[in-house]
Design brief:
The protein is built from one helix and 25 strands. It is mainly beta and about 290 residues long. It has a single domain, classed as Neuraminidase, CATH 2.120.10.30. Strands 14, 15, 16, 17 and 18 form a five-stranded antiparallel beta sheet that branches.
Length: about 290
Protein backbone atom coordinates (compact mmCIF):
# COMPACT_ATOMS: atom_id res chain seq x y z
CA UNK A 1 0.00 0.00 0.00
CA UNK A 2 1.22 3.50 -0.87
CA UNK A 3 1.09 5.84 2.14
CA UNK A 4 -0.09 9.40 1.68
CA UNK A 5 1.76 11.53 4.25
CA UNK A 6 1.53 15.32 4.60
CA UNK A 7 3.76 16.72 1.85
CA UNK A 8 4.80 20.24 0.93
CA UNK A 9 6.93 21.77 -1.81
CA UNK A 10 10.20 23.11 -0.45
CA UNK A 11 11.27 24.41 -3.86
CA UNK A 12 9.07 24.73 -6.95
CA UNK A 13 12.16 25.26 -9.12
CA UNK A 14 12.17 22.36 -11.57
CA UNK A 15 15.50 20.51 -11.48
CA UNK A 16 16.68 18.78 -14.61
CA UNK A 17 18.30 16.19 -12.32
CA UNK A 18 17.79 16.97 -8.64
CA UNK A 19 20.18 14.96 -6.45
CA UNK A 20 22.53 14.88 -3.49
CA UNK A 21 20.45 16.40 -0.66
CA UNK A 22 22.06 16.89 2.72
CA UNK A 23 21.22 18.86 5.85
CA UNK A 24 23.36 21.02 8.12
CA UNK A 25 21.68 20.92 11.53
CA UNK A 26 23.96 23.66 12.88
CA UNK A 27 22.38 26.22 10.54
CA UNK A 28 19.03 24.52 9.79
CA UNK A 29 19.99 24.54 6.12
CA UNK A 30 19.31 21.95 3.42
CA UNK A 31 21.50 21.67 0.34
CA UNK A 32 20.95 19.80 -2.94
CA UNK A 33 22.04 19.87 -6.57
CA UNK A 34 20.70 20.05 -10.08
CA UNK A 35 23.46 17.92 -11.59
CA UNK A 36 22.76 18.56 -15.26
CA UNK A 37 22.44 22.33 -14.89
CA UNK A 38 25.41 22.80 -12.56
CA UNK A 39 23.33 24.39 -9.80
CA UNK A 40 23.54 24.18 -6.00
CA UNK A 41 20.39 24.87 -3.95
CA UNK A 42 20.47 26.28 -0.43
CA UNK A 43 17.26 26.30 1.65
CA UNK A 44 16.96 27.71 5.16
CA UNK A 45 14.11 25.69 6.61
CA UNK A 46 13.20 28.15 9.34
CA UNK A 47 12.60 31.05 6.97
CA UNK A 48 11.69 29.05 3.89
CA UNK A 49 14.15 31.03 1.82
CA UNK A 50 15.81 29.25 -1.10
CA UNK A 51 18.93 30.43 -2.95
CA UNK A 52 20.42 28.97 -6.13
CA UNK A 53 24.17 29.05 -6.77
CA UNK A 54 25.66 28.58 -10.25
CA UNK A 55 28.70 26.29 -10.02
CA UNK A 56 29.94 26.35 -13.59
CA UNK A 57 30.28 22.55 -13.64
CA UNK A 58 28.20 19.48 -12.94
CA UNK A 59 28.27 18.48 -9.27
CA UNK A 60 26.25 15.96 -7.32
CA UNK A 61 26.94 16.03 -3.57
CA UNK A 62 28.62 17.86 -0.73
CA UNK A 63 29.79 17.28 2.81
CA UNK A 64 30.30 19.84 5.55
CA UNK A 65 33.94 20.32 6.54
CA UNK A 66 33.39 22.98 9.20
CA UNK A 67 31.30 26.10 9.80
CA UNK A 68 32.84 27.92 6.86
CA UNK A 69 33.64 25.24 4.28
CA UNK A 70 32.08 22.41 2.29
CA UNK A 71 33.57 19.68 0.13
CA UNK A 72 31.71 19.61 -3.20
CA UNK A 73 31.98 16.51 -5.43
CA UNK A 74 31.96 17.56 -9.08
CA UNK A 75 32.42 16.02 -12.50
CA UNK A 76 36.21 16.41 -12.45
CA UNK A 77 37.13 16.31 -8.77
CA UNK A 78 36.46 17.38 -5.20
CA UNK A 79 36.40 21.10 -4.45
CA UNK A 80 36.55 23.03 -1.21
CA UNK A 81 33.76 25.60 -1.31
CA UNK A 82 33.89 28.62 0.98
CA UNK A 83 30.43 29.55 2.22
CA UNK A 84 31.23 33.23 2.65
CA UNK A 85 31.77 33.86 -1.05
CA UNK A 86 31.06 30.56 -2.86
CA UNK A 87 34.66 30.30 -4.06
CA UNK A 88 35.64 26.79 -5.23
CA UNK A 89 39.20 25.49 -4.91
CA UNK A 90 40.20 22.08 -6.28
CA UNK A 91 41.13 19.72 -3.46
CA UNK A 92 41.78 16.59 -5.48
CA UNK A 93 40.98 15.48 -9.04
CA UNK A 94 38.67 12.52 -9.66
CA UNK A 95 38.47 10.94 -13.12
CA UNK A 96 39.42 14.36 -14.47
CA UNK A 97 41.16 12.63 -17.38
CA UNK A 98 37.95 10.83 -18.39
CA UNK A 99 35.43 13.25 -19.92
CA UNK A 100 32.94 10.40 -20.40
CA UNK A 101 32.15 10.23 -16.65
CA UNK A 102 30.73 12.42 -13.91
CA UNK A 103 30.02 12.14 -10.20
CA UNK A 104 26.72 10.76 -8.94
CA UNK A 105 25.54 9.45 -5.56
CA UNK A 106 27.72 10.12 -2.49
CA UNK A 107 27.45 10.14 1.30
CA UNK A 108 29.68 10.73 4.33
CA UNK A 109 30.34 7.87 6.76
CA UNK A 110 30.30 8.51 10.50
CA UNK A 111 34.10 8.33 10.53
CA UNK A 112 34.33 11.30 8.16
CA UNK A 113 35.20 9.14 5.14
CA UNK A 114 33.33 10.25 2.00
CA UNK A 115 32.04 7.52 -0.36
CA UNK A 116 31.80 8.91 -3.90
CA UNK A 117 30.12 7.33 -6.92
CA UNK A 118 30.90 8.04 -10.58
CA UNK A 119 29.12 6.95 -13.75
CA UNK A 120 29.07 7.44 -17.50
CA UNK A 121 27.39 10.64 -18.62
CA UNK A 122 25.04 8.49 -20.68
CA UNK A 123 24.89 5.68 -18.09
CA UNK A 124 27.27 3.51 -20.10
CA UNK A 125 27.60 0.02 -18.72
CA UNK A 126 30.28 -0.51 -16.04
CA UNK A 127 31.95 2.84 -16.71
CA UNK A 128 31.64 4.10 -13.15
CA UNK A 129 32.99 3.20 -9.73
CA UNK A 130 32.64 3.90 -6.02
CA UNK A 131 35.58 5.57 -4.28
CA UNK A 132 36.46 6.44 -0.71
CA UNK A 133 37.97 9.79 0.21
CA UNK A 134 39.64 8.79 3.46
CA UNK A 135 41.75 11.32 5.33
CA UNK A 136 42.40 13.27 2.17
CA UNK A 137 43.31 10.37 -0.12
CA UNK A 138 41.15 8.73 -2.80
CA UNK A 139 41.00 4.94 -3.21
CA UNK A 140 38.81 2.74 -5.39
CA UNK A 141 36.36 0.55 -3.50
CA UNK A 142 34.15 -0.98 -6.20
CA UNK A 143 34.94 -0.62 -9.92
CA UNK A 144 32.71 -1.54 -12.85
CA UNK A 145 29.55 0.17 -11.58
CA UNK A 146 27.04 1.40 -14.14
CA UNK A 147 24.84 3.71 -12.02
CA UNK A 148 26.02 4.02 -8.40
CA UNK A 149 23.23 4.89 -5.99
CA UNK A 150 21.86 4.29 -2.48
CA UNK A 151 25.17 4.95 -0.70
CA UNK A 152 24.36 5.07 3.03
CA UNK A 153 25.50 3.60 6.32
CA UNK A 154 24.01 1.79 9.31
CA UNK A 155 23.81 3.81 12.56
CA UNK A 156 26.75 1.94 14.10
CA UNK A 157 28.88 2.52 11.00
CA UNK A 158 29.54 -1.22 10.64
CA UNK A 159 27.56 -1.71 7.41
CA UNK A 160 27.64 0.19 4.15
CA UNK A 161 25.00 0.01 1.45
CA UNK A 162 25.13 0.82 -2.24
CA UNK A 163 23.18 -0.03 -5.38
CA UNK A 164 23.91 -0.40 -9.03
CA UNK A 165 20.61 0.83 -10.42
CA UNK A 166 21.28 -0.82 -13.78
CA UNK A 167 21.49 -4.21 -12.04
CA UNK A 168 18.50 -3.52 -9.75
CA UNK A 169 20.51 -4.74 -6.77
CA UNK A 170 21.14 -3.22 -3.33
CA UNK A 171 24.32 -4.48 -1.68
CA UNK A 172 25.44 -4.56 1.95
CA UNK A 173 29.13 -4.63 2.86
CA UNK A 174 30.77 -4.96 6.30
CA UNK A 175 32.84 -1.94 7.31
CA UNK A 176 35.39 -0.94 9.88
CA UNK A 177 33.31 1.57 11.88
CA UNK A 178 36.41 3.60 12.73
CA UNK A 179 37.40 4.19 9.10
CA UNK A 180 34.33 3.62 6.95
CA UNK A 181 36.37 1.25 4.76
CA UNK A 182 35.28 -2.29 3.78
CA UNK A 183 36.47 -5.28 5.75
CA UNK A 184 34.63 -7.82 3.61
CA UNK A 185 32.94 -8.32 0.27
CA UNK A 186 29.54 -6.89 -0.76
CA UNK A 187 26.57 -9.24 -0.54
CA UNK A 188 23.17 -8.85 -2.19
CA UNK A 189 20.66 -7.46 0.32
CA UNK A 190 17.73 -7.21 -2.07
CA UNK A 191 16.83 -7.31 -5.75
CA UNK A 192 14.40 -4.66 -6.89
CA UNK A 193 11.46 -5.83 -8.97
CA UNK A 194 8.45 -4.08 -10.42
CA UNK A 195 8.07 -0.46 -11.45
CA UNK A 196 10.96 1.94 -11.02
CA UNK A 197 14.55 1.56 -9.91
CA UNK A 198 16.77 1.96 -6.87
CA UNK A 199 18.00 5.54 -6.59
CA UNK A 200 19.36 7.48 -3.62
CA UNK A 201 19.01 6.22 -0.03
CA UNK A 202 19.57 7.27 3.56
CA UNK A 203 19.56 5.29 6.82
CA UNK A 204 17.54 6.40 9.83
CA UNK A 205 18.45 6.10 13.51
CA UNK A 206 16.85 2.64 13.66
CA UNK A 207 18.87 1.28 10.75
CA UNK A 208 16.07 1.32 8.20
CA UNK A 209 16.94 2.23 4.62
CA UNK A 210 14.84 4.93 2.94
CA UNK A 211 15.16 4.59 -0.83
CA UNK A 212 13.86 6.91 -3.55
CA UNK A 213 12.30 4.71 -6.23
CA UNK A 214 13.07 6.41 -9.54
CA UNK A 215 10.20 6.17 -11.99
CA UNK A 216 7.63 5.09 -9.40
CA UNK A 217 6.95 8.32 -7.49
CA UNK A 218 7.65 6.92 -4.05
CA UNK A 219 10.12 6.35 -1.25
CA UNK A 220 10.41 2.76 -0.04
CA UNK A 221 11.54 1.90 3.48
CA UNK A 222 13.48 -1.34 4.01
CA UNK A 223 14.61 -3.16 7.11
CA UNK A 224 18.33 -3.94 7.52
CA UNK A 225 17.39 -7.45 6.30
CA UNK A 226 15.97 -6.11 3.02
CA UNK A 227 12.25 -6.40 3.83
CA UNK A 228 10.10 -3.59 2.50
CA UNK A 229 8.23 -1.98 5.40
CA UNK A 230 6.61 1.16 3.97
CA UNK A 231 6.11 3.04 0.71
CA UNK A 232 5.46 6.80 0.81
CA UNK A 233 4.07 8.65 -2.18
CA UNK A 234 6.14 11.44 -3.73
CA UNK A 235 4.25 13.84 -6.07
CA UNK A 236 6.83 13.47 -8.85
CA UNK A 237 7.46 10.33 -10.87
CA UNK A 238 11.25 10.48 -10.83
CA UNK A 239 12.01 10.76 -7.11
CA UNK A 240 15.79 10.71 -6.83
CA UNK A 241 17.20 11.00 -3.30
CA UNK A 242 16.05 11.53 0.32
CA UNK A 243 17.63 13.21 3.34
CA UNK A 244 16.39 13.74 6.90
CA UNK A 245 15.95 17.40 7.78
CA UNK A 246 14.61 19.65 10.53
CA UNK A 247 15.76 20.21 14.08
CA UNK A 248 14.32 16.84 15.17
CA UNK A 249 15.30 15.15 11.88
CA UNK A 250 11.77 13.77 11.48
CA UNK A 251 11.00 15.15 8.03
CA UNK A 252 12.21 13.76 4.74
CA UNK A 253 13.48 16.01 1.96
CA UNK A 254 13.13 14.32 -1.43
CA UNK A 255 14.61 15.60 -4.70
CA UNK A 256 13.24 14.75 -8.13
CA UNK A 257 13.99 15.21 -11.83
CA UNK A 258 12.48 15.75 -15.27
CA UNK A 259 15.43 14.15 -17.06
CA UNK A 260 14.54 12.18 -20.23
CA UNK A 261 10.93 13.37 -20.17
CA UNK A 262 9.41 14.67 -23.39
CA UNK A 263 6.81 17.44 -23.40
CA UNK A 264 3.91 15.02 -22.97
CA UNK A 265 5.56 13.24 -20.02
CA UNK A 266 6.39 16.54 -18.32
CA UNK A 267 2.82 17.74 -18.74
CA UNK A 268 1.61 14.55 -17.05
CA UNK A 269 4.08 15.07 -14.19
CA UNK A 270 3.77 18.81 -13.45
CA UNK A 271 5.83 18.69 -10.24
CA UNK A 272 8.64 16.66 -11.77
CA UNK A 273 11.93 18.25 -10.73
CA UNK A 274 10.51 19.96 -7.63
CA UNK A 275 11.90 19.35 -4.15
CA UNK A 276 9.56 18.12 -1.42
CA UNK A 277 9.24 17.81 2.35
CA UNK A 278 7.44 14.70 3.63
CA UNK A 279 6.19 14.43 7.21
CA UNK A 280 7.66 10.96 7.53
CA UNK A 281 7.33 10.37 11.30
CA UNK A 282 10.87 9.04 11.30
CA UNK A 283 13.95 9.25 13.49
CA UNK A 284 16.70 10.51 11.25
CA UNK A 285 20.39 11.03 11.96
CA UNK A 286 22.54 14.12 11.54
CA UNK A 287 25.03 14.02 8.68
CA UNK A 288 28.68 13.80 9.84
CA UNK A 289 31.38 16.21 8.71
CA UNK A 290 33.99 15.23 6.14
CA UNK A 291 37.46 14.73 7.59
CA UNK A 292 40.25 15.74 5.24
CA UNK A 293 43.25 15.03 7.48
Amino acid sequence: MMEEVPTSVLSAEHCHLGEGPTYDATTDTAWWFDIREGRLFEAHLGSGGVRVHALGRMASALGRIDAGRQLVVAEDGCYIRTLADGAMTLFCPLEADNPATRSNDCRVHQSGTFWIGTMGRNAERALGAIYALHRGKISTLFPGISIPNSICFSPDGATGYFADTARAVLYAVPLNPATGLPRGEPEVLLRHTGIGGLDGSVCDADGRIWNACWGAGRVDVYSPQGERLRSLRVPAKQASCPAFVGQDLSRLLVTSAWQDMDAEARAADPQGGCTFLLEASARGRAEPDVKLA
